[in-house]
Amino acid sequence: MVMPAYGSGAQPTVWQPDNLDELQALKSELSGKYCYAAGATLLRTQWEGGLVPVPEHMISLARIPGASGVHVDGDDLVIGALTRLCHCATDVHLQQLPLVQSAMNAIAAPSIRNLATIGGNIVSGVGDSIPALLVYDAQLYWMTDNGMEMRSLSSWLNGGRDGSRNPNEVLISIHISMKNTSFSDANSERTSAAHEISFYRKLGRRETFTASLVTIAFYGEVGTDGRWNKIAIAAGGGSGMAMRLPESEKLLLGSEASIVQASALAAAVVSEFVTYRDAFATEQYRKQTAGNMLGAGLWEALCS
Fold it and tell me: In DSSP terms, which residues pair with 58 in a beta bridge?
């Protein structure tokens, strides 16, 4: 059994399992009196703010093999959950997913991105990477009590809404299919036949190092006939849970790509986006801002 790395007194005991078998054994032995840690940037903020108690035990995921780095596996681009945000922002493979790299560069400050991980950003449930990953139909690979399981990011987010999510599960990697997309090298005919339009936007309370008020992502493909043959739109921000916007997607899908769609898209997003109010912004402000950002982004993309 793995031994604790350190911990005494009021500080949590930190455990560092070397593999998934040791991690599974620790989960059983510690009986829920623990939390997982990778970069721990969000955890420290929560502890200092008194939002969550300091746990009795921490399980570091840093030594788990295969949980760091970016690589290609068949048709999938795989991002280890422990990959630092700074690495994701510059990785050559992720240049094929520009919205993900845009999101990485919009999160916190460089010093935080040097420590924080993409898995931690996702598991927070409200990370700014989530809208970008949603439009790429990301799949999440989890270690569960029943073994390894793959689930879509959308279904995992829904588990947070209906209370079915299990906090004891461990995110190992993120998988994004590169098949049947305009940025896939595996289908050169389709690559030449589809024009990709994508953008990511984050609005915060100040220019840098701030939680977002609204975050949006848009991915679309226009065929040789000038019509949208693929559309994916997502919105989130702040402490609200990001979501895909299927009704707004249907508004564009199959129609001719045109700047006149910008205002209709903005109105559809305002109607569909489910968000919240707090001390910084009303629910209507967030809805209207998401609509304006997506409408303006579409207008700019089609004018360029």
Answer: 14, 35
CATH of 194-303, one of 3.30.420.10, 3.40.50.200, 3.40.640.10, 3.30.390.50: 3.30.390.50
What would the two tokens of residue 127 be? 């990370």
Could you report the per-residue pLDDT of 226-265, keeping only the tens digit for each? 999 999 999 999 889 999 999 999 999 999 999 999 999 9
- Among residues 226, 234, 286, the alpha carbon closest in space to that of 256 is found at 226
> What is the rounded distance in angstroms from the CA atom of residue 162 to the CA atom of residue 120?
21
- Beta strand extents in 205-291 (DSSP E only): 212-223, 228-237, 240-244
What phi and psi values does residue 108 have, to the nearest 5 degrees? 50, -150
Q: Could you tell me the pTM of the whole model?
A: 0.87
- pLDDT tens-place string over residues 112-141: 888 889 999 999 898 999 999 999 999 999
Taking 50 as the threshold, does the pLDDT of residue 167 lie above it? yes
In whole angstroms, what is the distance from residue 83 CA to residue 122 CA?
A: 12
Mapping DSSP to helix (H, G, I), strand (E, B) and coil, where does residue 244 land?
A: strand
Report the pLDDT value the prediction gives residue 2, as an integer from 0 to 100.
57
Q: Could you give the 3-state DSSP secondary structure of residue 80?
A: strand
Give all strands of the β-sheet with 34-37 in edge-to-edge order: 4-6, 13-15, 57-60, 34-37
Q: What is the CATH architecture assignment of 70-177?
A: 2-Layer Sandwich (3.30)
